[in-house]
Amino acid sequence: MESSTYVILVLSYCFLFSLVVARNENALERSEDQIEAISHHYHTLKLSTFISSAVCNPSTNGEKRKGSLQMVHKHGPCSKFNEDMMKSLTLDEIFSRDQSRVDSILNKVRKEIQGSKTTLPAKSGSSIGTLNYIVTIGLGTPKKDFTLAFDTGSDLTWTQCQPCAGSCYSQQDPIFQPSTSSTYSNISCSSSECAQLDLARCSSSTCVYRVGYGDGSFTIGFFAKDKLTLTSEDVIDDFFFGCGQDNEGLFVGVAGLFGLGRDKLSFVSQSADKYGKVFSYCLPSIDSSSGFLMFGSSGIGSNVVYTPLSASQDNSFYGLDLEAIYVKGNKLEINPTVFTTSGMIIDSGTIITRLPPTAYSALSEAFQAEMTQYPLTQGPSLFDTCYDFSNYENITIPKISVVWSGNVNVEIPPQGILIPVSNEVYCLAFAANQDDSDIGVFGNTQQQTLEVVYDVTAGRIGFGPGGCS
Ligand SMILES: *[C@@H]1O[C@H](CO)[C@@H](O)[C@H](O)[C@H]1NC(C)=O
Ligand SMILES: *[C@@H]1O[C@H](CO)[C@@H](O)[C@H](O)[C@H]1NC(C)=O
């Protein structure tokens, strides 16, 4: 009796125990599934990911690529720029300059559509905005190094030149002195290159260029050519550029501008024989060190996917077609005609991606629905979806991806989803245009860490993940 009770007790205990184990195993399996599903649709990251780190650690990806130039964020740890000079811009100023860049892009595109090219454009360049990515190139013989703002939205490359007959702003590098370069020469007014300038005039038979930017900044000087050295193997002997004698406006610290637009005088067009109008870059996030800028098709990552380059409404810009936006793996309900009507360009100089208002509100609504655990707060006027993270060390945010024409899905890196606007406040890093008919702009915050390939000859633009950190 006693022993049988004992056996039954032991048996039932074993049975119960095995049940408990089995249920625990099930629970474990289920929660692992859930974690996987959740991480598939969310990023969980430390807030410090969004903040500039103090040390410069050149990206291994960038270094590995033969013949690539180092691409640096002006405010990042590898920038050699004097931070006192750089920090003089407030956030409001940064975002208002970003808006003025977008406004000037919209104006240029509208003019092209309306065909009002009969009058000379008063302003041939986009507003310079803040141009926060910089590269260093060599100019002249012997070569001197100059740090230029990298800009896919303009064509003519220029640098400030001695003797600064009009005026030069303060820059970090010594100003280019043409008389010390044995390969420098002025371009004559009768040359075919001079005829390609939007705005040119003659000064004792020397071709004089002028580029006015949308925000009133301008550069005027001698149209010139000299040897351009990117790396020891990448040298362009007769590179046409502006030797700026009067440079005024919102340029800060850089020696000038490196124009990688789509039109005739851009570096891309001038080096077409050598690189076949192919270039690629990775814009590093501000917390990281450096990305790269590379010309030609060798070394392009194998996981890059391509979308067709669209017939842009303006010759300088690179157009592409957005088809859909996903938040947390769900496609936003946006009528596709919203995107076909607006069109889109990709621009290295615009900070925040601009979307048609209809698409932006769908995005912001879906994002907010996933962020209900965080308190909403006010941010700069460009943004309407900002959060107060003062009580958080780590945050969980929904993944966002965009789908380009040809079903090319590009996941936006976390640093492209939120932008810090103070120590505690972070905003959804997208903004709405005024009108659904305004062209969208895919900006540099969203391009960070992606490998972006411009294959102009083949008419396509490629994106690959993890181009740099
Ligand atoms: C370029 O042209 C300007 C204006 O005519 C002149 O002052 C300068 O000496 C010229 N430079 C060279 C290298 O010819
Ligand atoms: C944040 O995440 C890290 C791991 O990445 C973890 O060690 C830390 O405890 C987390 N902090 C909080 C407050 O949850």
Automatic annotation (TrEMBL):
The active site is at residues 151, 347. Residues 133-464 form the Peptidase A1 domain. Residues 1-22 form the signal peptide. GO terms for molecular function: aspartic-type endopeptidase activity. CDD domains: cnd41_like (cd05472). The keyword Plastid does not apply. GO terms for biological process: proteolysis. Keywords: Aspartyl protease, Disulfide bond, Hydrolase, Protease, Signal. PANTHER family: ASPARTYL PROTEASE AED1 (PTHR13683:SF750), ASPARTYL PROTEASES (PTHR13683). Belongs to the peptidase A1 family. This is Peptidase A1 domain-containing protein. It comes from Lactuca sativa.
